[in-house]
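Recap slide: Recombination protein RecR, sequence and predicted structure.
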Amino acid sequence: MAGLIKPLNSVYDQFRRLPGLGNKSALRLAYHIIDMPEEDVRRLAETLLQAKRNIRFCRECFNLTDSDECEICRDEKRDHSMICVVEQPQDAMAMERSRGYTGVYHVLHGCLSPLDGIGPEELRIKELLSRLGSGDVKEVILATNSNVEGEATAAYLAQLLKHQPVVVSRIARGLPMGGDLEYADEVTLAKALENRTRITG
């Protein structure tokens, strides 16, 4: 950025690479790092390096873990006959916060996006099919995002799993709790109608 001394500009450039950070936020963080005591900066850098070195993919579901298997896959109280397929580890965390799901997960690490060069081979789809080979899985819940890529991924997986001896379901989409109809977009309203439930005879 024009006007920044080179070392500060380097910090700014690194923050700018992070998703969800605009130029102003990246600049604010860069100044904040420079204002921090050196010991705090060293601790932050060491924490990031340790996390990068110690975090790996669960050998079963490909969620993030610091051991061979994640806590969810190791938990015998979870329903291992039900697999919820999500795009990213943070999606599994969001499902966990709902406290309404007791099965296990499978993390694809992306979604189908031909324009970005992401096809089935770039996702953990072969590993999902391998998990179904044991015969223990009864249901696969497709919980990819409700956007063009997420819907395409769910449709592809549904077609792929059609001949598997499992129930394939898709999470419902619609209006969020507390949402006003006037602020909802057409797709959300259409999905809310599509996924309506009967409340009387």
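The mean pLDDT is 90.
Helices lie at 6-16, 23-35, 38-54, 71-74, 89-97, 125-132, 148-160, 186-194.
(End of recap.)
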